[in-house]
Amino acid sequence: MHLKLDSQFLCSDQRMDTELVDRLVLQLNRIYPQILSDKEAHRFRNLSVPTKVRLAELLKHLHRKGEEACHEFYRALHIHTEDIYSSLPSRVREREVADSKCTNDKTVRQERYVLNDRGPMFFLSCFSFVVGIAILYYYGGESWHKKCTGVFLHCSAVRLSKDARDVFISYGEVGK
Predict the structure, then answer these.
(1) pLDDT digits (tens, 9 = 90+) for 147-161
(2) 95-101: long-range contacts, CB 8 A cutoff, minimum separation 24
(3) Where are the alpha helices (DSSP H) in 13-161?
(4) Which residue ranges traverse the bilayer (predicted)?
(5) What confidence tier does 144 reach under pLDDT thresholds 50, 70, 90?
(6) CB 153 within 8 A of CB 169
């Protein structure tokens, strides 16, 4: 239960004033009388007792009542004071966990679909180079084939394995 973790924060927060505690008690009493009876609501609204003490007793009472009572208290707190509700330690931790999961998912998705980080211009320049070589090879004539094919195959074979390099070089020499 988060209420046990948040109760110290709620009791020490200056924004939890008498008026806010009264509104929370009244909402729990009017809307959920099974959670907070009239007698209990009167006890938690007693102005002769300091607000921090009343709030601590209310939180202990709700914790003893169970999960539904705690959930309704959080709902009432969310309705009446969004800023306190969003700054609760349990809410902050949930947001951090959700944010870390979200950023992890985004990085995994990016890594999954990005093949390289060079961008589309790199792809277009490589593609244009290959198309240019293919056009020269196709329309260049026999003399160009004999001069450039061997040199081109030797340069292309630099990054290949030893067996593939031997095949490329022998193909280039056979064509001469």
Answers:
(1) 555 555 555 555 556
(2) none
(3) 18-31, 38-44, 51-65, 67-80, 82-86, 89-113, 120-139, 142-156
(4) 119-139
(5) low
(6) yes
31-49 pLDDT, tens per residue? Answer: 888 888 999 999 988 888 8
Report DSSP letters for 83-124, one per residue.
Answer: HHHHTSHHHHHHHHHHHHHHHHHHHHHHHHH-S-SS-HHHHH
The H-or-E segment that residue 11 falls in is helix 2-12
Choose among 72, 73, 62, 54: nearest CA to 11.
54
Closest CA to 54 of 66, 63, 45: 45
**Distances in Å between the alpha carbon of 12 and those of 7, 8, 21, 56, 82?**
9, 6, 13, 10, 17
**Are 11 and 60 in contact, with CB atoms under 8 Å apart?**
no
Can you give the CATH number for the domain in which 55 is found? 1.10.533.10
**Structural domain boundaries enclosing 75:** 16-101
Distance CA 85, CA 92 (A): 10
Confirm if 13 and 84 have CB atoms less than 8 A apart: yes
Output the six-digit token pair for 113: 């679909």
| Count of the separate structural domains present in the chain | 1
In-domain check, residue 74: yes
**What's the whole-model pTM score?**
0.54
